[in-house]
């Protein structure tokens, strides 16, 4: 009985970590885009540093959350969820930076993610870990 | 001159180099143990690659749309298995070759969009 409770708790924590890895990863990338845009025409003044530092901090926390999630979640479960990174970045880029996203770009992104899934999940090491 | 696309290529390459250095550094080795296993040339290489690529990434994002630049980073996943095969003697599964091909097509499409 205790073993099952401990397992569900670990799964809950891992799922929450996975969720945050996506949110923080997307936020971190959007913040980096924002920070980069602010450097345009601004020269190398010190005030370009805080946005960059914020972006890196948020992004790093996302990486930590991903590592935490992977301690208890199988990669074959966790990795497909990272497709939401692409969705979030597409939505954020369109909404906050007015980027035009053509069908060709969206299609290319879908292909890239499909390819990344195949490479990541069909590696020999991945198969061994799932056995 | 616009260094953005050259920088994006460098970010991809540095990601591959750093990842391979990290893999090799973390591989179990009888020569290093304990703390020594973490502080090594491989780890240093990874750290340096990570730091430089972060700076270059900002250069890229000044002009290249995020919705275009970010997916192109996926090219790393196409290059890493190939490089690992050469440098670390890792096998590349058939499905991975398929994945690599699909990534290349996708990157070409996104690069053109």
Describe the 3D structure.
Chain A is mostly helical and 131 residues long. Helices cover 84% and strands 0% of the residues of chain A. Chain A contains 6 helices and no strands. Helix content of chain B is 75%, strand content 0%. Chain B has 5 helices and no strands. The two termini of chain B are 22 Å apart. Chains A and B meet through helix 1, helix 4 and helix 5 of A and helix 2, helix 3, helix 4 and helix 5 of B.
- How many individual helices of chain A? 6
Number of strands of chain A: 0
Envelope shape of chain A? globular
Biggest sheet features of chain A: none
Approximate strand percentage of chain A: under 5%
| Secondary structure tally: strands of chain B | 0
The greatest inter-chain interface is formed by: A-B, 40 and 41 residues
Mean pLDDT of chain B: 91
Structural class based on helices, strands and sheet pairing of chain A: mainly alpha
Mean residue pLDDT of chain A: 90
Give the overall silhouette of chain B: flat
What's the assembly state of these chains?
heterodimer
Radius of gyration of chain A: 18 Å
Order of helices and strands of chain B: HHHHH
Helical fraction of chain A equals: over 70%
């Amino acid at each position: 009985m205790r073993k099952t409770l401990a397992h569900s708790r670990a799964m809950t924590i891992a799922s929450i970590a996975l969720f945050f890895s996506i949110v923080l990863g997307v936020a971190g990338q959007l913040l980096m885009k924002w920070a980069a845009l602010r450097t345009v025409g601004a020269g190398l003044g010190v005030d370009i540093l805080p946005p960059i530092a914020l972006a890196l901090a948020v992004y790093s926390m996302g990486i930590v959350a991903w590592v935490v999630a992977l301690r208890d979640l199988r990669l074959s479960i966790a990795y497909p969820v990272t497709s939401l990174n692409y969705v979030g970045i597409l939505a954020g880029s369109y909404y906050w930076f007015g980027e035009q996203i053509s069908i060709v770009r969206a299609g290319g992104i879908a292909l890239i993610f499909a390819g990344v899934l195949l490479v990541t999940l069909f590696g020999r090491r991945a198969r061994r870990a799932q056995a | 001159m616009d260094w953005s696309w050259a920088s994006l290529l460098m970010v991809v390459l540095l990601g591959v180099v750093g990842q391979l250095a990290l893999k090799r550094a973390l591989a179990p080795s009888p020569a290093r143990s304990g703390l020594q296993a973490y502080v090594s040339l491989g780890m240093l290489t990874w750290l340096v690659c990570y730091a430089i690529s972060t700076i270059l990434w900002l250069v890229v994002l000044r002009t290249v749309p995020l919705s275009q630049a970010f997916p192109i980073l996926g090219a790393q996943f196409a290059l890493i298995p190939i490089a690992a095969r050469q440098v670390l003697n890792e096998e590349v599964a058939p499905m991975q070759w398929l994945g690599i091909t699909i990534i290349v097509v996708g990157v070409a499409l996104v690069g053109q969009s």
